[in-house]
Amino acid sequence: MASEVSELNPRYNIVPTQDAPVVLEEDGRVLKMFRARAETVALKPSFRTPFRKRRCLVVADGFYEWKRLAGGGKEPRRAVLPSREPFAMAGLWDDWKSPEGKDVRTFTIIATGANDVMKPIHDRMPVIFAREDEATWLDPAAKPDVLASLLKPWSGNLETYAVSPIVNSPRNDNPTCVEETTA
């Protein structure tokens, strides 16, 4: 199931159940899944073993959250670093067998409470690592209390902007997804 990633095509709208590249300590893999809560990731049966043994970095240059509007409805927003550089989010990966007997490799992004930038938009956000914390997260010998201390809201700068509702459909995976809109 290992796969080397020599060249990645840009992705603009990755959603649960789609393949995406992640970084593991042992090698690069293509995996998939959804979010785990930072507060319960070490306790829930589905995440307990991956938290101890199968941590990964999910690399992106932005993420989407939907802001509830006062008059009803939601507005999709994209969060990015001011530099627009890629960043690593906390992830877990696992192997399991599908009901059809196929080997499946999955991943999940760990979410934590929102920081001050994200609070007006959503109450949760992905755990984003400072570069110096990435190696600790991937370290197989890292202690659970050290790992848990990394699962906090991003303290660096973030910017958000409105994007088109086309991000609501996984069929839309093109540069228009990340373009700022004025509503």
Draw up the topology in text.
Layout: E1 20-23, E2 28-31, E3 35-37, H1 45-53, E4 55-60, E5 63-68, E6 74-80, E7 87-97, E8 103-113, E9 124-126, E10 128-129, H2 131-138, H3 144-150, E11 159-162
Parallel strand pairs: 3-8
Antiparallel strand pairs: 1-2, 4-7, 5-6, 6-11, 7-8, 7-10, 8-9
Query: In this structure, how is the largest beta sheet organized?
Result: 6 strands, mixed
Strand content: 25-35%
Q: What's the number of extended β-strand segments?
A: 11
State the helicity in percent bands: 10-25%
Note the total helix count.
Answer: 3
CATH superfamily: SOS response associated peptidase-like
Q: Output the CATH class name.
A: Alpha Beta
Q: How many structural units, i.e. domains?
A: 1
Q: Which word captures the global form? A: globular
CATH architecture: Alpha-Beta Complex
Average pLDDT works out at 85
Return the CATH topology: hypothetical protein yedk fold
Distance between the termini: 44 Å
Structure classification: mainly beta
Radius of gyration: 17 Å
| H and E order | EEEHEEEEEEEHHE
Low-confidence stretches: 1-5
What key attributes describe this structure?
single chain, globular, 183 residues, 6-stranded mixed beta sheet, 3-stranded antiparallel beta sheet, hypothetical protein yedk fold, mainly beta, disordered N terminus
